[in-house]
Specification:
Helices cover 54% and strands 18% of the residues. The protein has 422 residues and is an alpha+beta fold. The chain folds into three domains: 12-186, Beta-Lactamase (2-Layer Sandwich); 194-278; 279-422, 2-Layer Sandwich (Heat Shock Protein 90). The strands form two sheets. A six-stranded antiparallel β-sheet has the order 3-2-1-6-5-4, sandwiched between helices. A five-stranded mixed β-sheet has the order 7-8-9-11-10. α1 runs antiparallel to α2 (44-59) and α2 (44-59) runs antiparallel to α5 (161-246). It starts with 9 loop residues before the first helix and ends in an 11-residue tail after the last strand.
Amino acid sequence: MQSPSPSEPQSSTEHRLRQELIAQGRFLDGLVRSLGAVSAGLDSAAVLEHTAVEAQRLFTADAVLVLVPAAGERSLRPAAAAGLALGPLGDARVPMDAEGSALAVAARDLVGTVTGPAQPVDEVTRRLRPRALLAAPLVVAGRLHALVVLLDLHGGAGFGPDDLARATLFADFAARAAESAALFERVEALLAQARIRESERAELSRRVVSAEQEERRRLSTFLHDGPVQTLSGVNMMLNAAAEAMEAGDSETAQQVLETARARQRSVIGEVRELSFALEPWTLREQGFETALQAIADRFEADHRVVVTLDVADADALSGDDQVCLFQIVREAMTNALKHANPATIVVSVHGSPREGLEARVVDDGSGEMSEPADGLPHHGVASMQERAAILNGRLDIDSVPGTGTTVRVLVAAGKLQEGDGV
């Protein structure tokens, strides 16, 4: 604003000042309305669109173009426009290092720029050929979020220092709206991820409960059809032996008792097998390696398969994590033995809770992976996957027909609990 000259009449000075104050008041009123429109939504794209529309209205520009940093490129691309069609400019780019480009300078230096007629030096100015332009950056967290470009396309009055100051003020407020929208979108994305994780946890809980119910059902069926029926038969044989003894037929009584003892030993073996299948007591009493060695010894004795163990690292896990990993490894070993007819099974556990852990069960069998059909509670691959999920890990199975199967449990660092052993 210039100071009145000594010769300028006082009434003329007052009139000019009054007109300037009125103009400033109108601009501020318009700025408030524009900022309300820009910040009305919490969508980043909508904020840029509203910024273009309100900038054109507020500054009575022929057109407004909003440029944003192109993903993966060191250049600017059109994102919104008012007063011109955005489509034909969709593929236009303004390199950040474009020599002589007012748009590139404003984007690099994060300062507003005004230019008059000039030689077009970038794709945008070559296509639009503005008579004058004003570029005001929207800066969020010290970085360029967008560049608002006011365009004089028809040779109007152009843009002056006052326009630049006002556009910079408008851009600052628009940047705050853009920052709020971006923050809201990040919060929404985090909430969506949290909802997905909660849904996954709920589904995992449902599957775990379903698996537990299924195991209970199978256990009940196994006990009813197996040990209970056998013990009922033993009881009937004992009654028959007693009757034979009362009748003086000691030879028959002796034969019946021998049969009863054999069936009793059989049912004891079945119940012991069931108890070990549920969770071997040695796992918590003597550790992971000892419990797994017991299974390996039985496999080698009963099925002539060579089992090699390298699982000492598993003892660094908490008790519950050891149980979960043990069940996966045992299931993989049992499936290999039941269906792949291997000559060797190699089990390894390497890593730690802090570094990440990988467990492997490798057999040289037929390359088949399916669920055992021995009447005991098993869920095969589904069971192993569920237990791997409980460990926040991943189960991978690589089967090659005629060559063998590799079962891997991969758990990232920090996902397991570190324990004092069991």
